[in-house]
Amino acid sequence: MPMCDDIQIGIIGGGAMAEALIAGLVEGGTIPATHISVSDHKAMRCDELTRKYGVYAQVGAESFLPRIDVLILAVKPVAASPAMCETAALLKEGALVLSIVAGLPIAALEEGYPNHPVVRAMPNTPLAVGAGMSAYACGTYADDDVSAIVELLLGASGRTVRVHESDLDAVTGLSGSGPAYAFLMIEALIEGGVAAGLKRETASLLAAQTILGAAQMALASAHSPADLRAAVTSPAGTTAAGLRVLERAGVRSSLIEAVLAAAERSKELGRG
Which 8-state DSSP code applies to residue 71? Predict the structure, then answer.
């Protein structure tokens, strides 16, 4: 596998997750924009990605498949099988296949790309702002060098963790779908702030920064989230009053059920 500056990357699919990856790689300086080629079925979307990031984007991947070192599959699950059929024969020998398709198992990837190292990953959209969380599992032919490349590509825009493939459906339910849960909570906090008399602009800043700060504390602290919550909850205080409402409304159990439902949906997608 070439060094970082020499790696040529091809991306199949130009949706939100693909754009998040592109933004992280290009804006973080990990991979030059001129080393990234993208194929999407919409010409307007290709033009948009080229204009925003300077990557080479087009309808069809025939021109870049024979020269790329890493192929990133970033299509919807329903389009995965056709995408593999269309790209496998032209793909450069030994190229790494990195799939971020929800529910697509390593076995299917290795069948579609025989003798290629394959990695199945689940990143999330905060990659676009350098705060992503990506979990990945390696296939049969993916050695430590391949793992290092994956860490480089996904770690350029956040944190990474290597897991067993059997964990990836749960990862999808938690961190893959998790940003949407966080956005919903931010939305609700904003509405609560407005209802309490704040201007919407002020409430928006307070809500987003509060969630960000709490997450940073959870990552940096040696204490558990439960301990951190207890530390800011004075007996009979304002926070205790708010938490009592949340617990009574079943917010905790709803979040647990949301993760489980998303994980189950990932399994269903994997079964076809």
Answer: E
Q: Tens digit of pLDDT for each residue in 247-258?
A: 999 999 999 999
pTM, two decimal places: 0.89
Helix (H, G, I), strand (E, B) or coil at 142: coil
Domains of the chain: 4-168 (3.40.50.720), 178-271 (1.10.3730.10)
Taking residue 88's Cβ as centre, other Cβ atoms within 10 Å add up to 16
Which of 153, 156, 141, 211 has its CA nearest to residue 179? 211
Specify the 3-state DSSP secondary structure of 120.
strand
SS3 label, residue 162:
strand
Side by side, the strands of the sheet bearing 96-99 are: 56-58, 36-39, 9-12, 70-73, 96-99, 118-122, 132-138, 158-162
Structure tokens belonging to residue 105: 């198992």
Section 201-215 average pLDDT:
98
